Amino acid sequence: MVKLDFEWKDDGQYHQYCEKCHAETISRVKDGERTQYACSSCNGRYDRSIVVDPGLVWWVDEEQNYWHESAGVFIRNDNSEFLFFDRIIFPFSLTIPSGHVDKGEDAMTAAKREVSEEVGLTVENIREVAVADVWGDQCRRGADVHRWHAFVADLPSDAGISLNHEGLNPQWKTLDEAIASDIITPVRYMIDNYKQQILAG
Hints:
Number of strands: 13
CATH topology of the largest domain: Nucleoside Triphosphate Pyrophosphohydrolase
Number of domains: 2
CATH architecture of the largest domain: Alpha-Beta Complex
Structural class: alpha+beta
Distance between the termini: 32 Å
Radius of gyration: 17 Å
CATH superfamily of the largest domain: Nucleoside Triphosphate Pyrophosphohydrolase
């Protein structure tokens, strides 16, 4: 569990720290199709870094746990299948369109933006079906716990999907098929705990 228990800055500026040595000497590198982060201080390469970004909704609790707020959308087609894709930025697993809530955004606005950015689709009639604090949800920006908002939207399966730099291999799956796959922690949590709400959403 990442804790902000080292000397970090909260000065309204963007800071990126090495996950291991906490130095601000990080650069983004490619490992095949996957993105990693190289530290010139400890000479390590890691799947993620610790980012303190004033543009995101984040906080630190009394135990120094680092929190982010996130939103994701279960996009359903006419066959009651949902849109998933493979992440090539940590965590490297199957996911739905999702991401962090920006400062000044509400969760629904963030959810719509993430769908547009990650899969190139526009969703207007989306419904929030669950909100949960998901522990063990490791993100590339260093948080291990997220307040996660899950939404549902309906689109035809022939909608023009255009993945951005974070994903490959778009695919339609039932929730049961998805849960049998290697999927990111918060999506698994939402299906495990809110499957009926997602299906009814």
